Each structure stands twice: as structure tokens, then as C-alpha cells.
Backbone:
């Protein structure tokens, strides 16, 4: 496995691979890799010939009051995990390599970036789309793999790719969880053992919504209140939102449709903010 740290070398390597007919698959990450990232890399391996994993904690997707400086980093471990999972190249640039002091170009995907996650993190998605577009231009992938864990991010990336005509296939891989239901996240490392236990309430609340939705007789307000009760038993610091979303449009559902419902939530324990979601298929 090769480690590439500069943009030009990565672009040259990508060009060389493309010319030799190899299919490049990109897995963008912020590092501190876990089994969720590992599953994305495994998926990437079957989608192409060369798997590029980017490891870059992107400052433009963090607001000044967020956890950019304390975001967990362990590049040595990331290299081992990515290599064992089957990655061929790690792209690991510095912030200076990715952004000049004068950087002022951003991609804005509109209203959807201000809903749900965006209501609490209004500048987050423009940082995400901007860095992902840069990573696309640097690693020149045929396919890129994202996690359903960040459902809104995956939706917005697909929208960007479609509306800006990137010739890249976007694949979304399922959420990897611990046995107790807690979705794996690099940010779980912020949680104390007791908070980790309490945080299993997110999955319990999601499972409850699934049961209620599949029963068929409900209103969104009733299910939201029941989920809130389950979450409140875990003594969270704050429940940011519990949302019922049409995954085709990423708009909040008002009526109860046939087909698939995305239930998404964000909850804080202490200063740690966790997100999770569940896709529920109704016939
Ligand atoms: P991050 O390093 O947290 O920015 O995540 C990089 C990619 O891994 C994103 O596409 C995430 O959605 C995905 N990811 C993070 N956690 C998980 C998980 N538990 N299961 C599956 N994918 C995940």
C-alpha cells in the first residue's frame, strides 16, 4: 500500500491508473478508522481495481465552536487498518496542501443543507461538498463509497454529483453497529463507558419507531414523543432532533406514505453529539 501526501502526485497516479484501464474507487474518511470504515473499504474492493482511502480531517466542515482540534487522530493505526482491509493507496494531505490561505471557493447544494443536521450545523455541508469535490478532482475515482450513517451527507453528495455532472458512481453502504446497537463512530471515543451504555438509547428509539411504523396506525407526533421518552430515560444532555424523512427528497414527511421512511436523530451526551438513522421499508 502506498501513502500519498501531495495533490500533484495523487493526480498523476490517478491519471496513470486510469490510462492503464484500472477502475479507481475512493473511500473518503476523516481517519481514526473503525469497522464502519473497514466495511466501506471491503465494499470498495469489489467495486473496482484500486481502492484509495483518503484520511483528512477537513477543517471547513467544522464550525469554530466544534471539535476540529480535538477530533481523534491516529494515522499509524489508520494505515494498518486500511491496509488490512485491502486499501491500495492512502491519500493523506496536510491542511496546507488542501487549502491555500486564500481559499474562498465553496459548493452550496441549497435548502437541503440547512435542514436536520444543517439546522444545527449551518456551514457543515458546504465544507463537506467542497472537500469531496476536491477529493474527486484529486483522486479521479470511477466510484466513491459513503456510509448510510451520514444519510444526509450521502444524499447531498449524490445531489452534487448529479447537478454538477461528476462522472462518478456513488455507492452508499449500510451502518455498522456494535452488538448493543450503538452505531460505530470515531466520536464514540469521546464517550465515557457509562455514556456509551446510555447512548444505546438511540438505537432503541429507532427500533421503536420501526415497530410503530410497521404496525401502521400512528401519527409522527405520537412516535416522536415515544422516541423522546426512550431517549430521555438515558439522560441525554440534549435531543437536537427526531425527524421522519422522505429519503427520495430529504424533506420532512407530513403524511404517512407508502414505501420507505428514514428516521433520523441527533442526541448529545455531555459535549458529544451523536447521529443515527434507520431506513424503514413499508409495503
Ligand atoms: P468519517 O470518517 O466519520 O467522516 O466517515 C467516513 C465515511 O465512513 C462516511 O461516508 C461515513 O458515513 C462512513 N461511516 C462512518 N461510520 C460508519 C458506520 N458505523 N457504518 C458505516 N459507515 C460509516
Residues:
Amino acid at each position: 500500500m502506498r501513502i500519498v501526501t501531495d495533490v500533484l502526485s495523487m493526480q498523476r497516479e490517478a491519471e496513470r491508473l486510469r490510462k492503464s484501464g484500472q477502475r479507481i474507487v475512493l473511500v473518503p474518511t476523516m481517519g481514526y478508522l473503525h469497522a464502519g470504515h473497514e466495511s466501506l473499504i471491503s465494499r470498495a474492493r469489489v467495486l473496482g481495481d484500486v481502492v484509495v482511502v483518503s484520511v483528512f480531517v477537513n477543517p471547513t466542515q467544522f464550525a469554530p465552536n466544534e471539535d476540529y482540534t480535538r477530533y481523534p487522530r491516529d494515522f499509524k493505526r489508520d494505515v494498518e487498518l486500511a491496509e488490512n482491509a485491502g486499501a491500495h493507496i492512502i491519500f493523506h494531505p496536510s491542511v496546507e496542501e488542501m487549502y491555500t490561505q486564500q481559499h474562498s471557493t465553496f459548493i452550496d447544494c441549497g435548502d437541503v443543507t440547512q435542514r436536520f443536521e444543517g439546522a444545527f450545523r449551518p456551514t457543515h455541508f458546504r465544507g463537506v461538498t467542497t472537500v469531496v469535490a476536491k477529493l474527486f478532482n484529486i483522486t479521479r475515482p470511477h466510484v466513491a463509497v459513503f456510509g448510510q450513517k451520514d444519510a444526509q451527507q450521502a444524499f447531498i453528495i449524490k445531489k452534487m454529483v448529479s447537478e454538477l455532472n461528476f462522472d462518478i458512481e456513488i455507492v452508499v453502504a449500510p451502518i455498522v453497529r456494535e452488538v448493543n446497537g450503538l452505531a460505530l463512530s470515531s466520536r464514540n471515543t469521546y464517550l465515557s463507558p457509562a455514556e456509551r451504555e446510555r447512548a444505546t438509547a438511540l438505537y432503541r428509539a429507532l427500533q421503536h419507531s420501526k415497530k410503530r411504523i410497521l404496525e401502521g396506525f400512528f401519527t409522527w407526533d405520537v412516535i416522536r414523543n415515544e422516541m423522546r421518552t426512550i431517549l430521555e430515560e438515558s439522560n441525554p444532555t440534549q435531543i437536537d432532533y427526531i425527524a421522519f424523512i422522505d429519503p427520495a427528497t430529504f424533506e420532512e414527511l407530513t403524511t404517512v406514505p407508502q414505501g420507505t421512511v428514514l428516521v433520523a436523530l441527533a442526541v448529545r451526551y455531555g459535549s458529544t453529539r451523536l447521529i443515527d438513522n434507520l431506513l424503514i421499508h413499508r409495503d
Notes: The pocket of adenosine monophosphate is lined by residues 29-30, 36-37, 39-40, 146-147, 149-150, 173, 175-176, 183-186 (CB under 6 Å). The longest strand covers residues 259-269. Residues 260 and 281 are 4 Å apart (CA to CA).
